[in-house]
Design brief:
The structure is a single chain. This protein has one domain: STAS domain (Transcription Regulator spoIIAA), CATH 3.30.750. Helices cover 44% and strands 34% of the residues. The chain has three helices and four strands, in the order E-E-H-E-H-E-H. Strands 1-2-3-4 form a four-stranded mixed sheet. The chain is globular.
C-alpha cells in the first residue's frame, strides 16, 4: 500500500510518500510526479521518510526523477542508503 500526499508551497511542491514504493505503486508515484510538474513550476521534493520498501522499479523511478532535478528528503538507514546509491549513479549528492 502507498499513500502520496502533495503539499504545495509558493515555489515548491513536496510529494510525501508513505508505505511501499513497489509494484503498481511505482506507477502511482510517476503519475503524481507528472501531475506535480504540470501543475506548478518550481522545485519538486519527494519526501521518503515514511517509505517502508523501495523496489528496484521504485529505485529506477527515483533515479529518473533525480536526473530531472527532483530533490529528496529522507530519514532512516535504508532510505539514505538507497538515495546514496542513486546519487552515485547520477553523479549528484543531496545533503
Amino acid at each position: 500500500m502507498l499513500k502520496i500526499t502533495a503539499v504545495e508551497r509558493r515555489h515548491q511542491r513536496t510529494l510525501v510518500v508513505e508505505g511501499e514504493l513497489a509494484g503498481p505503486w511505482v506507477t502511482e508515484l510517476r503519475t503524481a510526479w507528472n501531475d506535480a510538474r504540470m501543475a506548478q513550476p518550481g522545485r519538486i521534493v519527494v519526501d521518503l521518510k515514511d517509505a517502508t520498501v523501495i523496489s528496484e522499479q521504485g529505485q529506477d523511478l527515483l533515479r529518473e526523477m533525480k536526473s530531472e532535478g527532483v530533490q529528496f528528503a529522507c530519514h532512516g538507514v535504508l532510505n539514505r542508503h538507497v538515495l546514496r546509491r542513486l546519487a552515485r549513479g547520477c553523479r549528484q549528492v543531496d545533503r
